[in-house]
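Lay summary. Proteins are chains of building blocks that fold into shapes, and those shapes determine what they do. In this project we predict the shape from the chain. Here is one chain we studied, written as its sequence of building blocks.
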Amino acid sequence: RNLARKTVKLTCFGVGVVGTCSLANKAINDDMDDITYFFSKHLYKVARKETLPKRKVVVLGSGWGALSFVRKLDPDSYQVTVVSPRPFFFYTPLLVGSTTGVVSPGAIIEPIRDSVPSVEFLRVACRDIDLETRRVFCENGVDLDYDHLVVAVGAQPNTFGIPGVEKYGRFMKEIEHGRQVRKDMLNRVEDADVARAAGDLEAVKRLTHFVVVGGGPTGVEFCGELSDFIIQDLRKRYPKIADHFKVSLVEALPGLLTMFDKSVGSYVQSHLEAQGVDIRLNAMVKEVEQEKVHLKNKDGSIDTMGYGILVWVAGVGMRPFTKALCEKIGKEAGQTDRRGLLVDPCLRVKGTRPGEVFALGDCAVSGKPPTAQVAAQQGKYLGKMFRHGSTHLISDPEASPFEYKHQGSMAYVGKGEAAAELNPNALIKLGRSSITDHMWWRSLYGECDQLKIMGVAGFAIWRSVYFSKLFSARNRWSVASDWGRTALFGRPASSSAQGTAACVA
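And here is the predicted shape, written in a compact code that computers can read:
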């Protein structure tokens, strides 16, 4: 009898913990409407006699916007098909960590078929759309009809037409980019050690010089992760070339992290310089060659640097598919922006029939920045509109527009520190009023709504927020395990992607 009571108590406790964690997860990720919708849907099912026909929704893409949207759709109301050449979602904020071995690439991906098993997924690329007949034409002879089309194909690295970047640079946009950067970086280190043994000091200096172009969050985080990797791991494992490792960060603007407050950018610059990062501000890349890069400084002078690997994170641009769709709709119909598909406040693509074609994320020009935070909120907004509004709201010109709630920006800067600029009003969701403005925020945070947290406290927030935004329990388990492994044993200085010596470039 006592054993039965203990078992019941433990079971109740376990259920309570799991339920509390699940509820907290929904609250943090703005998914509390899932609970009310679940109950209202089943009550409506009991009262409703007839079954309404499902409308066909085709989603192009498997990123933040696409998956956030699809996870909100009701499979009883919509027949959903996701089309993408990538069969998984990957957690972009931790891509940089995969290049140095802090996390493994497999830990930050979530298969589409696991995340949303109720939808049909086709691993093909879309090549054309017939807006009149509402048909999507894909590779391998796959044609799909749709009632609603959601374009969320993202963007691609923008080289701005600079010679040599496409051929010799390495990018940081997809999971394969991270794998390639890690492979090339470790190969260069091995080549440098061989050059040291051969007595070629100039080759050693060049091969151990890592150049990062772009002073935004990705460039800063990569420099921070790379400096940690060099200081904590590579110098120990390659003591004979330890003094030659060098990281250079090149930025065309006069400061780093220009989307942050200027004081944050100054702190980050000082911190990276203290870690040995050579920061080149007001320097534009003019040309990239196989082993050297040419920079034009503010005064017009030209500097040339040799490098082992050059990582380009200086911006994004339209994919060819997005460009072709813009041209198909035409400038006369409203597609006049060279950055992507222009959308109205409800994310409907301008120049198309109301309620038929939508665009989310980096491929859409909505007046919001091309970030994962924006794409995720857009996906949830549109999913809720489809969930609650049915056809009349989806095409209604008076429907409530998308409202972006900027929760803040963060960047890891190395040595267990990070810079975080948070918007407490968006996080706690008390709303804007004279009470919250003058009695709450002013008393706690002073005269500025943006809360700036830097150093170790910023790092704790950075990790906590990123961990809470992971899409599944499997991701959280894998990432937490990788973080623990790195803390205990360090980062591995080799990768299976390197292969044998005959494969080394």
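What the prediction tells us: The mean pLDDT is 87.
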